[in-house]
Structures are given as structure tokens and as C-alpha cells.
Amino acid sequence: MDNQRSVRISKYLAKHLRHEPERIGITLDAQGWVSVEELMTAAARHGFHFSRAELEAVVADNDKQRYAIEDGRIRASQGHSVRVDLDLPPAVPPAHLFHGTVARSVAAIREVGLRPMSRHAVHLSQDRETATRVGARRGKPVVLTVDAGAMHRAGHVFRVSANGVWLTSRVPPQFLRFPG
């Protein structure tokens, strides 16, 4: 499978496993899972055909490990705008985590901190490089440092997704360090 096809399938999965399952007539369970067969049938019914082998290759080869397949079911690892409970246990974060954004968002973040916006949680990276890539999707990246250790000691709950993305409900401004 060529890279262009892989990207098309991955974007299709993101749209329907994270944001709009109803658009193709699938229903995610409480933890975000749907049967692979149900997904493939619904996708084909809506004119987007892919094979089981293509699906498994996209899941296995995705550089961010955005999806998981278990027991004949598939789900997105995080990033949902639809209500799901990924059933991730609380975890002790590293001392510092990182968040990639763009300059036009910095003033608002200084004022109110990081909020989940249309997602269920704020997404944080364990390394500066990943945060830089995330921020670069919307322009010139700005990487913020999150004092995750202090947040945790103050009672904020962190969870880590299957693909290593750290999740928390919000990051108040006092726990953020801005570059420059």
C-alpha cells in the first residue's frame, strides 16, 4: 500500500473513530470501541472501501500509534470529540511535559491556561520534539513546558494513552513555562 492510500485510510479512521461515528452509521461503545467488521461494512456502504490487511497495516504502521485493534474491535487511542471513557487509569507523570501550539494562541493560554477545547482532555507530549511537530501542524510551533510534577502534587490527575500521549483535564497558567 502506498503512503497516500495509508494517509487517506488513517484520516478516515480519525474522522469516524474520534469525531463523527454517526456519519457512517457506527456506534462506539462506552470505551470507544467498534467491531472491525461493523466499521468496514459501514465504510464500504458509504463508498470508502479498504481491506482488512490495509486496515491492520495502517494501525500497525501509524507513526503515532493513533489506533488499537483488540479482539476484533478497533478504537482511536485518544483525541475524541465524541463522549468516550478510554478507561485509562491515573498515572504519575514525569516532572515535565510539553505542549505544542502556535504564537497566535499564546496570549489566551497565558491568561486561562490549556483547555481541552473540542476534545475531552488536554494532550501533552513527553518530549519537546513531538510537541514541536504537533504545533507545526498549524503554523510556526511554540513549545510550552508543563510543570506536570507540581500539577500532580497539587491534585491534578494525569492519564497516559496507549500511544504515549499524556492527558489531563486542563493546565492552569501557573504550571506553564513559556519560551523566551
Automatic annotation (TrEMBL):
Pfam families per record: PTS_2-RNA
GO terms classed as biological process: tRNA splicing, via endonucleolytic cleavage and ligation
Segment forming the signal sequence: none
Xref: Gene3D superfamilies: 3.20.170.30, RNA 2'-phosphotransferase, Tpt1/KptA family, N-terminal domain
EC number(s) recorded for this UniProt protein: 2.7.1.-
Swiss-Prot/TrEMBL keywords: NAD, Transferase
GO MF term set: NAD+ poly-ADP-ribosyltransferase activity; tRNA 2'-phosphotransferase activity
Key word Transmembrane present: no
Function: Removes the 2'-phosphate from RNA via an intermediate in which the phosphate is ADP-ribosylated by NAD followed by a presumed transesterification to release the RNA and generate ADP-ribose 1''-2''-cyclic phosphate (APPR>P). May function as an ADP-ribosylase.
Entry similarity comment: Belongs to the KptA/TPT1 family.
Protein name: Probable RNA 2'-phosphotransferase
Organism of derivation: Streptomyces caniferus
